[in-house]
Amino acid sequence: MQMHDPRKQPCLGDPAPEPAPLSNTTMSTAPPKVVLPTLDVLGVKTDLDTVDAKAIANEWLSNFAQAADVDALLKLFVEDGFWRDFLALTWDMRTFHGHARIKTFLEDRLAQSKISDVKLSTAPGEEPAIVKPYPDLAWLQLTFNFTTGAGIVSAIARLIPNAEDGVWRAYTLFTNLEGLKGHPPAIGHLRDTTHYPGTWSGMREKEREFKDTPDGPSVLIIGAGQSGLDVAARLKLKYVGEKAQSA
Asked: What CATH code would you report for 39-180?
């Protein structure tokens, strides 16, 4: 077996090493399984720039709001559609591709989530509109909000037309939990204005030594990267609990 010689360091001007064979890498040469819904693939000949985006968005969203069961909601998606959920219905970050997986997800979470108060967003930049990044690729994009039993959710849907029946259905839907009911973020007038005597370093030392919590922290966060700091900040809010510590 050839051993590595640490004295042999690469120098400027040395020939580049031979690349590893493709079979020894993690790169896949398989073609992607997802086919983009181009107008050619969809068989759509209509000029989408002339459609009434707001009317189509309102119709789709009305059906979404009134869908009382899994099958009714599933009809609003194309067979090869995607539902990407960030904590809103699954309390996790999940992507469901295709009718079969979306159906399983809805059977598990739809009734428990209690979707209500569905509203189309018409804020600047969020109005329903035809998006056409390429000449042969287009969709209708709409942004909306709704509530669940636990929180407030924002959502973005991208609809594509069906050439046979003319119905617009969701190719992708993204749902994102914005906040929990009854627990708004501690910003603006909700910010803690209590005066704490002493210095910041003294307060920080008390936190590090758990002097106000002799039983130790309720939660220990391993890692203080961006996600760790975000979680620590959330857990320090009074409605969650005082005993959180980043390590």
From this structure: 3.10.450.50
